Amino acid sequence: MVLAELGGSISRALQQMSSATVIDEKVLNECLNEITRALLQSDVQFKLVRDMQTNIKKIVNLDDLAAGHNKRKIIQQAIFNELCKMLDPGKPSFVPKKGKTSVVMFVGLQGSGKTTTCTKYAYYHQKKGWKPALVCADTFRAGAFDQLKQNATKAKIPFYGSYMESDPVKIAVEGVERFKKENCDLIIVDTSGRHKQEAALFEEMRQVSEATKPDLVIFVMDSSIGQAAFDQALAFKQSVSVGAVIVTKMDGHAKGGGALSAVAATKSPVIFFGTGEHMDEFEVFDVKPFVSRLLG
Ligand code: GDP
Protein backbone atom coordinates (compact mmCIF):
# COMPACT_ATOMS: atom_id res chain seq x y z
CA MET A 1 0.00 0.00 0.00
CA VAL A 2 1.35 3.37 -1.00
CA LEU A 3 0.29 4.91 2.28
CA ALA A 4 3.02 2.89 3.91
CA GLU A 5 5.53 4.29 1.44
CA LEU A 6 4.51 7.77 2.38
CA GLY A 7 4.97 6.86 6.02
CA GLY A 8 8.39 5.53 5.11
CA SER A 9 9.52 8.81 3.52
CA ILE A 10 8.25 10.83 6.43
CA SER A 11 9.86 8.54 8.98
CA ARG A 12 13.13 8.76 7.07
CA ALA A 13 12.98 12.55 6.99
CA LEU A 14 12.34 12.66 10.73
CA GLN A 15 15.09 10.19 11.41
CA GLN A 16 17.57 12.21 9.37
CA MET A 17 16.64 15.32 11.25
CA SER A 18 16.87 13.78 14.68
CA SER A 19 20.29 12.40 13.92
CA ALA A 20 21.59 15.89 13.15
CA THR A 21 23.75 17.24 15.97
CA VAL A 22 22.29 20.72 15.84
CA ILE A 23 18.69 21.31 14.89
CA ASP A 24 18.62 24.72 13.32
CA GLU A 25 16.22 26.27 10.88
CA LYS A 26 18.08 24.75 7.95
CA VAL A 27 17.76 21.20 9.27
CA LEU A 28 14.08 21.73 10.10
CA ASN A 29 13.44 23.15 6.62
CA GLU A 30 15.14 20.21 4.98
CA CYS A 31 13.03 17.83 7.00
CA LEU A 32 9.82 19.72 6.16
CA ASN A 33 10.75 19.84 2.47
CA GLU A 34 11.21 16.09 2.47
CA ILE A 35 7.82 15.64 4.12
CA THR A 36 6.27 18.06 1.64
CA ARG A 37 7.57 15.98 -1.25
CA ALA A 38 6.12 12.82 0.29
CA LEU A 39 2.71 14.43 0.77
CA LEU A 40 2.64 15.86 -2.77
CA GLN A 41 3.45 12.45 -4.15
CA SER A 42 0.51 11.17 -2.20
CA ASP A 43 -1.80 13.63 -3.97
CA VAL A 44 -2.21 16.11 -1.16
CA GLN A 45 -2.90 19.44 -2.79
CA PHE A 46 0.06 21.82 -3.02
CA LYS A 47 -1.69 24.65 -1.19
CA LEU A 48 -2.63 22.37 1.71
CA VAL A 49 0.92 21.11 2.03
CA ARG A 50 2.27 24.64 1.96
CA ASP A 51 -0.19 25.72 4.66
CA MET A 52 0.81 22.74 6.76
CA GLN A 53 4.47 23.62 6.41
CA THR A 54 3.82 27.22 7.48
CA ASN A 55 1.78 26.09 10.48
CA ILE A 56 4.37 23.61 11.63
CA LYS A 57 7.07 26.24 11.49
CA LYS A 58 4.89 28.45 13.67
CA ILE A 59 4.19 25.67 16.17
CA VAL A 60 7.59 24.05 16.42
CA ASN A 61 9.86 26.04 18.61
CA LEU A 62 13.48 25.65 17.59
CA ASP A 63 14.64 26.46 21.12
CA ASP A 64 12.68 23.48 22.43
CA LEU A 65 14.33 21.34 19.83
CA ALA A 66 17.79 22.60 20.75
CA ALA A 67 17.16 21.96 24.44
CA GLY A 68 17.44 18.27 23.83
CA HIS A 69 13.78 17.35 23.90
CA ASN A 70 12.79 14.48 21.71
CA LYS A 71 12.93 16.42 18.47
CA ARG A 72 11.54 13.72 16.34
CA LYS A 73 8.55 13.32 18.59
CA ILE A 74 7.82 17.05 18.71
CA ILE A 75 7.82 17.39 14.93
CA GLN A 76 5.98 14.13 14.37
CA GLN A 77 3.29 15.26 16.79
CA ALA A 78 3.01 18.63 15.04
CA ILE A 79 2.64 16.96 11.64
CA PHE A 80 0.13 14.50 13.03
CA ASN A 81 -1.94 17.30 14.53
CA GLU A 82 -1.81 19.37 11.34
CA LEU A 83 -2.94 16.47 9.15
CA CYS A 84 -5.75 15.67 11.59
CA LYS A 85 -6.81 19.31 11.51
CA MET A 86 -6.85 19.24 7.71
CA LEU A 87 -9.23 16.29 7.79
CA ASP A 88 -11.52 17.90 10.32
CA PRO A 89 -13.86 20.46 8.77
CA GLY A 90 -14.86 21.62 12.24
CA LYS A 91 -18.42 20.38 12.16
CA PRO A 92 -19.78 16.84 11.99
CA SER A 93 -21.93 15.76 9.06
CA PHE A 94 -25.64 15.10 9.40
CA VAL A 95 -26.08 11.64 10.90
CA PRO A 96 -29.30 9.83 9.96
CA LYS A 97 -31.24 8.33 12.87
CA LYS A 98 -32.51 4.78 12.84
CA GLY A 99 -36.30 4.69 12.70
CA LYS A 100 -36.59 8.27 11.41
CA THR A 101 -36.78 8.78 7.65
CA SER A 102 -33.72 10.35 6.06
CA VAL A 103 -33.04 10.95 2.40
CA VAL A 104 -29.41 10.67 1.38
CA MET A 105 -28.35 11.71 -2.12
CA PHE A 106 -25.10 10.46 -3.64
CA VAL A 107 -23.21 12.56 -6.19
CA GLY A 108 -19.96 12.00 -8.07
CA LEU A 109 -18.45 11.52 -11.49
CA GLN A 110 -19.04 8.40 -13.54
CA GLY A 111 -16.70 5.62 -12.48
CA SER A 112 -16.07 7.12 -9.04
CA GLY A 113 -17.79 4.11 -7.49
CA LYS A 114 -21.05 5.89 -6.69
CA THR A 115 -23.49 3.07 -7.44
CA THR A 116 -21.33 0.51 -5.65
CA THR A 117 -20.99 2.83 -2.67
CA CYS A 118 -24.76 3.43 -2.47
CA THR A 119 -25.27 -0.29 -1.98
CA LYS A 120 -22.38 -0.56 0.48
CA TYR A 121 -23.85 2.29 2.51
CA ALA A 122 -27.31 0.68 2.44
CA TYR A 123 -25.91 -2.73 3.33
CA TYR A 124 -23.82 -1.32 6.17
CA HIS A 125 -26.92 0.18 7.75
CA GLN A 126 -29.15 -2.79 6.99
CA LYS A 127 -26.77 -5.00 8.97
CA LYS A 128 -27.28 -2.65 11.90
CA GLY A 129 -31.04 -3.08 11.76
CA TRP A 130 -31.99 -0.15 9.54
CA LYS A 131 -34.59 -0.32 6.77
CA PRO A 132 -32.73 1.17 3.79
CA ALA A 133 -33.98 1.54 0.20
CA LEU A 134 -32.24 2.43 -3.05
CA VAL A 135 -33.51 4.76 -5.76
CA CYS A 136 -31.78 4.80 -9.14
CA ALA A 137 -32.05 8.32 -10.53
CA ASP A 138 -29.22 7.70 -12.97
CA THR A 139 -30.88 7.84 -16.36
CA PHE A 140 -27.69 8.86 -18.13
CA ARG A 141 -25.58 5.72 -18.01
CA ALA A 142 -27.00 2.73 -19.84
CA GLY A 143 -27.06 -0.19 -17.45
CA ALA A 144 -27.05 1.92 -14.29
CA PHE A 145 -30.47 0.68 -13.20
CA ASP A 146 -29.54 -2.94 -13.89
CA GLN A 147 -26.40 -2.56 -11.81
CA LEU A 148 -28.25 -1.05 -8.88
CA LYS A 149 -31.03 -3.61 -9.20
CA GLN A 150 -28.54 -6.46 -9.19
CA ASN A 151 -26.68 -5.10 -6.15
CA ALA A 152 -29.90 -4.37 -4.29
CA THR A 153 -31.35 -7.79 -5.01
CA LYS A 154 -28.19 -9.47 -3.78
CA ALA A 155 -28.38 -7.53 -0.53
CA LYS A 156 -32.18 -7.89 -0.29
CA ILE A 157 -32.65 -4.15 -0.23
CA PRO A 158 -35.78 -2.66 -1.82
CA PHE A 159 -35.07 -0.56 -4.92
CA TYR A 160 -36.84 1.74 -7.32
CA GLY A 161 -36.00 2.76 -10.88
CA SER A 162 -37.27 2.70 -14.43
CA TYR A 163 -36.13 1.50 -17.83
CA MET A 164 -38.52 3.83 -19.62
CA GLU A 165 -38.49 7.11 -17.75
CA SER A 166 -35.73 9.47 -18.81
CA ASP A 167 -36.36 12.23 -16.28
CA PRO A 168 -34.11 11.66 -13.27
CA VAL A 169 -36.01 14.18 -11.16
CA LYS A 170 -39.29 12.34 -11.68
CA ILE A 171 -37.77 8.98 -10.75
CA ALA A 172 -36.04 10.40 -7.71
CA VAL A 173 -39.25 11.98 -6.42
CA GLU A 174 -41.35 8.88 -7.10
CA GLY A 175 -38.80 6.61 -5.42
CA VAL A 176 -38.44 8.81 -2.36
CA GLU A 177 -42.22 9.11 -1.98
CA ARG A 178 -42.75 5.39 -2.32
CA PHE A 179 -40.15 4.49 0.30
CA LYS A 180 -41.39 7.17 2.67
CA LYS A 181 -44.79 5.49 2.51
CA GLU A 182 -43.12 2.16 3.18
CA ASN A 183 -41.51 3.61 6.28
CA CYS A 184 -37.95 3.08 5.14
CA ASP A 185 -35.61 5.01 7.39
CA LEU A 186 -32.73 5.45 4.95
CA ILE A 187 -33.72 6.38 1.40
CA ILE A 188 -30.63 6.47 -0.78
CA VAL A 189 -30.76 8.28 -4.11
CA ASP A 190 -28.13 7.30 -6.66
CA THR A 191 -27.68 9.97 -9.31
CA SER A 192 -26.12 10.27 -12.76
CA GLY A 193 -22.47 10.94 -13.32
CA ARG A 194 -20.48 12.13 -16.32
CA HIS A 195 -16.95 11.41 -17.36
CA LYS A 196 -15.98 14.96 -16.59
CA GLN A 197 -17.32 17.96 -14.77
CA GLU A 198 -20.10 19.34 -16.99
CA ALA A 199 -22.66 22.07 -16.53
CA ALA A 200 -25.51 19.68 -17.47
CA LEU A 201 -24.54 17.30 -14.68
CA PHE A 202 -24.44 20.01 -12.04
CA GLU A 203 -27.77 21.41 -13.20
CA GLU A 204 -29.28 17.93 -12.94
CA MET A 205 -27.85 17.48 -9.43
CA ARG A 206 -29.31 20.83 -8.42
CA GLN A 207 -32.75 19.81 -9.71
CA VAL A 208 -32.74 16.37 -8.07
CA SER A 209 -31.62 17.91 -4.81
CA GLU A 210 -34.27 20.61 -4.97
CA ALA A 211 -37.00 18.06 -5.69
CA THR A 212 -36.04 15.43 -3.11
CA LYS A 213 -34.73 17.75 -0.38
CA PRO A 214 -32.09 15.34 0.90
CA ASP A 215 -31.04 15.46 4.54
CA LEU A 216 -27.51 14.67 3.43
CA VAL A 217 -25.63 14.86 0.13
CA ILE A 218 -22.61 12.58 -0.07
CA PHE A 219 -19.84 13.28 -2.57
CA VAL A 220 -18.18 10.06 -3.77
CA MET A 221 -14.60 10.39 -4.91
CA ASP A 222 -12.22 7.92 -6.47
CA SER A 223 -9.03 8.09 -4.43
CA SER A 224 -6.90 7.69 -7.53
CA ILE A 225 -7.87 10.98 -9.17
CA GLY A 226 -4.86 12.71 -7.67
CA GLN A 227 -4.53 16.45 -7.73
CA ALA A 228 -7.90 16.79 -9.51
CA ALA A 229 -9.67 16.05 -6.23
CA PHE A 230 -9.95 19.62 -5.00
CA ASP A 231 -11.54 21.07 -8.14
CA GLN A 232 -13.88 18.13 -8.58
CA ALA A 233 -15.11 18.28 -4.99
CA LEU A 234 -15.49 22.05 -5.19
CA ALA A 235 -17.54 21.83 -8.40
CA PHE A 236 -20.06 19.51 -6.72
CA LYS A 237 -20.13 21.60 -3.56
CA GLN A 238 -21.00 24.65 -5.64
CA SER A 239 -24.08 23.00 -7.15
CA VAL A 240 -25.48 21.02 -4.21
CA SER A 241 -24.90 21.24 -0.49
CA VAL A 242 -22.44 18.40 -0.07
CA GLY A 243 -22.33 17.43 3.60
CA ALA A 244 -20.03 14.40 3.62
CA VAL A 245 -17.44 12.62 1.52
CA ILE A 246 -16.81 8.95 0.79
CA VAL A 247 -13.49 8.00 -0.73
CA THR A 248 -13.41 4.84 -2.84
CA LYS A 249 -10.77 2.41 -4.10
CA MET A 250 -8.43 2.81 -1.16
CA ASP A 251 -7.40 -0.77 -1.81
CA GLY A 252 -5.69 0.14 -5.07
CA HIS A 253 -2.68 2.31 -5.74
CA ALA A 254 -4.47 5.25 -4.25
CA LYS A 255 -2.36 7.54 -2.22
CA GLY A 256 -5.24 8.84 -0.15
CA GLY A 257 -4.11 12.45 -0.13
CA GLY A 258 -7.10 13.48 -2.21
CA ALA A 259 -9.23 12.97 0.89
CA LEU A 260 -7.62 16.05 2.41
CA SER A 261 -8.48 18.07 -0.69
CA ALA A 262 -12.09 16.87 -0.68
CA VAL A 263 -12.49 17.92 2.94
CA ALA A 264 -10.96 21.32 2.25
CA ALA A 265 -13.12 21.89 -0.83
CA THR A 266 -16.43 20.73 0.62
CA LYS A 267 -15.82 21.68 4.26
CA SER A 268 -17.31 18.28 5.03
CA PRO A 269 -15.86 15.23 6.74
CA VAL A 270 -14.94 11.94 5.12
CA ILE A 271 -17.33 9.42 6.68
CA PHE A 272 -16.51 6.09 5.02
CA PHE A 273 -14.01 4.65 2.58
CA GLY A 274 -14.23 1.81 0.10
CA THR A 275 -11.63 -0.93 0.06
CA GLY A 276 -12.86 -3.23 -2.69
CA GLU A 277 -15.62 -4.10 -5.11
CA HIS A 278 -17.60 -6.19 -2.64
CA MET A 279 -20.49 -4.99 -0.63
CA ASP A 280 -18.77 -5.37 2.72
CA GLU A 281 -15.49 -3.78 1.67
CA PHE A 282 -16.44 -0.55 3.31
CA GLU A 283 -15.10 1.04 6.48
CA VAL A 284 -15.95 3.91 8.76
CA PHE A 285 -13.43 6.69 8.25
CA ASP A 286 -11.65 7.76 11.36
CA VAL A 287 -9.26 10.68 11.19
CA LYS A 288 -6.60 9.56 13.67
CA PRO A 289 -6.03 5.99 12.42
CA PHE A 290 -5.98 7.33 8.85
CA VAL A 291 -3.31 9.90 9.69
CA SER A 292 -1.35 7.36 11.74
CA ARG A 293 -1.29 5.12 8.73
CA LEU A 294 -0.26 8.04 6.56
CA LEU A 295 2.68 8.69 8.84
CA GLY A 296 3.70 5.04 9.05
P1 GDP B 1 -20.28 4.90 -10.76
O1 GDP B 1 -20.16 5.09 -12.24
O2 GDP B 1 -19.71 6.05 -10.01
O3 GDP B 1 -21.63 4.52 -10.30
O4 GDP B 1 -19.25 3.71 -10.39
P2 GDP B 1 -19.50 2.17 -10.08
O5 GDP B 1 -20.15 1.99 -8.78
O6 GDP B 1 -20.12 1.52 -11.27
O7 GDP B 1 -17.99 1.70 -9.92
C1 GDP B 1 -17.03 1.76 -10.96
C2 GDP B 1 -16.07 0.61 -10.78
O8 GDP B 1 -15.33 0.79 -9.58
C3 GDP B 1 -16.75 -0.74 -10.63
O9 GDP B 1 -16.01 -1.70 -11.33
C4 GDP B 1 -16.72 -1.01 -9.13
O10 GDP B 1 -16.72 -2.38 -8.83
C5 GDP B 1 -15.41 -0.36 -8.76
N1 GDP B 1 -15.33 0.06 -7.35
C6 GDP B 1 -16.17 0.83 -6.63
N2 GDP B 1 -15.71 1.03 -5.37
C7 GDP B 1 -14.55 0.36 -5.28
C8 GDP B 1 -13.56 0.19 -4.24
O11 GDP B 1 -13.66 0.69 -3.11
N3 GDP B 1 -12.46 -0.57 -4.55
C9 GDP B 1 -12.30 -1.14 -5.79
N4 GDP B 1 -11.20 -1.86 -6.01
N5 GDP B 1 -13.18 -0.99 -6.78
C10 GDP B 1 -14.29 -0.25 -6.54
TrEMBL record:
AAA+ ATPase domain mapped to chain residues: 100-277
Primary localization: cytoplasm
Catalytic activity: GTP + H2O = GDP + phosphate + H(+)
A single Gene Ontology CC term: signal recognition particle, endoplasmic reticulum targeting
Ranges where the SRP54-type proteins GTP-binding domain occurs: 101-296
Superkingdom field: Eukaryota
Record localization: Cytoplasm; Endoplasmic reticulum
Gene Ontology biological process terms, A to Z: SRP-dependent cotranslational protein targeting to membrane, translocation
Keywords: Cytoplasm, Endoplasmic reticulum, GTP-binding, Hydrolase, Nucleotide-binding, Ribonucleoprotein, RNA-binding, Signal recognition particle
Domain called Signal recognition particle SRP54 helical bundle: residue spans: 2-87
GO molecular function: 7S RNA binding; endoplasmic reticulum signal peptide binding; GTP binding; GTPase activity
Keyword presence, Nucleotide-binding: yes
Job of this protein: Component of the signal recognition particle (SRP) complex, a ribonucleoprotein complex that mediates the cotranslational targeting of secretory and membrane proteins to the endoplasmic reticulum (ER). As part of the SRP complex, associates with the SRP receptor (SR) component SRPRA to target secretory proteins to the endoplasmic reticulum membrane. Binds to the signal sequence of presecretory proteins when they emerge from the ribosomes. Displays basal GTPase activity, and stimulates reciprocal GTPase activation of the SR subunit SRPRA.
Self-association and partners: Component of a signal recognition particle (SRP) complex that consists of a 7SL RNA molecule of 300 nucleotides and six protein subunits: SRP72, SRP68, SRP54, SRP19, SRP14 and SRP9.
Domain remark text: The NG domain, also named G domain, is a special guanosine triphosphatase (GTPase) domain, which binds GTP and forms a guanosine 5'-triphosphate (GTP)-dependent complex with a homologous NG domain in the SRP receptor subunit SRPRA. The two NG domains undergo cooperative rearrangements upon their assembly, which culminate in the reciprocal activation of the GTPase activity of one another. SRP receptor compaction upon binding with cargo-loaded SRP and GTPase rearrangement drive SRP-mediated cotranslational protein translocation into the ER. The M domain binds the 7SL RNA in presence of SRP19 and binds the signal sequence of presecretory proteins.
Protein family (similarity comment): Belongs to the GTP-binding SRP family. SRP54 subfamily.
Protein name per its UniProtKB record: Signal recognition particle 54 kDa protein
Organism field: Kalanchoe fedtschenkoi
Span within the parent record: 1 to 296 of 495
